[in-house]
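In the design runs reported in the main text, the only information available to the sequence generator was the tokenized backbone. The following block is the verbatim input for one such run; it is reproduced so that readers can re-run the procedure and compare outputs position by position.
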């Protein structure tokens, strides 16, 4: 275990937590950028299976505003998947070439629920991506209730070719909040999927949202203390964004609720990271809501300032990832 702030900085290359950049340097020898891909999926929260409007905070792009050219909305139509995905990859490579001179990337299926299809379709979609010589990692954002036995078997086979990461949007462990945000599945469903992914050897990253209406600081810390004891390898801590066009935006305009200030968020982030185990990779400590859609908080659009404030808070408090972590 790490015993001081200075020891944490030394271990994690100048940061008081185990960042994704540090992890990539250790495993691939370089920083690797993501290419966001769109596989044409929808979501059971949007197609009528569970609901029609998605989660209360989710934009019409399904968090895929930075993805490539979208495939057909109906995955059963089976368009020329390979050609479209190759085109998205090439466009993404051109985009990141302005800031990255490396030759590998993380292929990230981001928009909507990226395992919400048959295993046969998913194999056609994922295989050309993972076979691409420059793909280092295949990263897939999905829901725990969209991971059948057949799909996990496919992911296990793909993981034998190259690393596969599954990203699960839990957001909170509290069932009242879950119903409010229309997540559509229980904590038990999440735990079951998590353990099946663990048995398959699939690296799992969990998304949480800080600042959901009605949640106290203790509620948020409880979510992260719970995740600290689960078999997950990474976490994305996300500030709540109110985006135009969402039901959350409508609610905020009619009945405004408290939005975290930068100082509140900075304090909350370090308290959450303190309770996480030091071997858990911190994939994100803020977020990039599309500025053209952002209603609140407007300060979140200044990413450099946000990161500087968080890192300054770590230094002022003299704390680090895992300082308050207690293993079972």
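Verbatim output:
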């Amino acid at each position: 275990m790490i015993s001081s702030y200075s020891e944490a900085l030394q271990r994690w290359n100048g940061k008081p937590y185990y960042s994704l950049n540090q992890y990539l340097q250790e495993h691939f020898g370089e920083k690797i950028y993501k290419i966001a891909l769109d596989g044409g999926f929808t979501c059971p929260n949007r197609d009528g299976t569970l609901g029609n409007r998605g989660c209360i905070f989710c934009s019409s792009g399904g968090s895929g505003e930075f993805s490539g050219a979208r495939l057909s909305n109906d995955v059963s139509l089976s368009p020329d998947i390979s050609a479209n995905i190759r085109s998205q990859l090439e466009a993404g490579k051109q985009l990141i070439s302005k800031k990255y001179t490396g030759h590998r990337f993380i292929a990230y299926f981001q928009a909507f629920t990226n395992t919400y299809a048959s295993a046969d379709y998913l194999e056609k979609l994922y295989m050309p991506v993972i076979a691409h010589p420059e793909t280092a990692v295949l990263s897939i954002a999905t829901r725990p209730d969209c991971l059948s036995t057949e799909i996990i078997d496919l992911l296990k086979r793909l993981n034998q070719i190259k690393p596969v990461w599954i990203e699960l949007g839990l957001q909170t462990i509290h069932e009242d909040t879950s119903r409010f945000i229309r997540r559509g599945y229980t904590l038990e469903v999440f735990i079951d999927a998590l353990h099946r992914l663990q048995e398959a050897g699939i690296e799992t990253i969990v998304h949480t949202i800080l600042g959901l209406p009605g949640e106290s600081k203790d509620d948020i810390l409880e979510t992260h203390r719970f995740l600290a004891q689960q078999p997950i390898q990474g976490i994305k801590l996300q500030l709540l964004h109110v985006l135009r066009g969402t039901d959350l935006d409508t609610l905020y305009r009619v009945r405004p609720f408290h939005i975290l200030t930068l100082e509140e968020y900075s304090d909350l982030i370090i308290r959450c990271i303190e309770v996480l185990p030091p071997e858990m990779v911190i994939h994100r400590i803020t977020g990039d809501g599309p500025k053209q859609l952002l209603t609140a908080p407007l300060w979140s659009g200044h990413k450099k300032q946000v990161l500087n404030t968080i890192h300054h808070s770590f230094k002022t408090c003299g704390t680090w990832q895992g300082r308050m972590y207690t293993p079972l």
